[in-house]
Specification:
Helix content: 40-55%
Strand order of the largest sheet: 1-2
Number of helices: 4
Number of strands: 2
Strand content: under 5%
Largest sheet: 2 strands, antiparallel
Length: about 100
């Protein structure tokens, strides 16, 4: 719910964020707007995965046994965001995290 709200806020202020990106790093306005749109898409996409992580039972052969997987966080991730598309990368990295 929070990620969808963030995507909505980014969408509401897309023009301002694109202008800031253009002023900050000189990206053409069209490229800056596409980065903002990509950020919205990333947050919306990853918000849909929040309730879909689950383990699965793996069939074991030839002896009956129990073998399963469970998705767990891997750890801390450090990301270096390039200067040319910051909004796109914010959505890509923070959405996945």
């Amino acid at each position: 719910d929070a990620m969808l709200r963030l995507a909505e806020l980014i969408k509401r202020h897309a023009g301002e964020l694109a202008t800031l990106t253009t002023l900050d790093n000189g990206a053409p306005p069209r490229n800056a707007m596409s980065g903002v749109a990509a950020s919205i898409d990333h947050f919306t996409y990853y918000a849909g995965w929040v309730d879909k992580h689950a383990g699965e039972v793996i069939p074991v052969w030839p002896n009956p046994a129990l073998d399963y997987t469970l998705m767990e966080p891997y750890g801390v991730v450090g990301v270096i965001i390039p200067w040319n598309v910051p909004m796109h990368n914010v959505g890509q990295v923070l959405g996945a995290a």
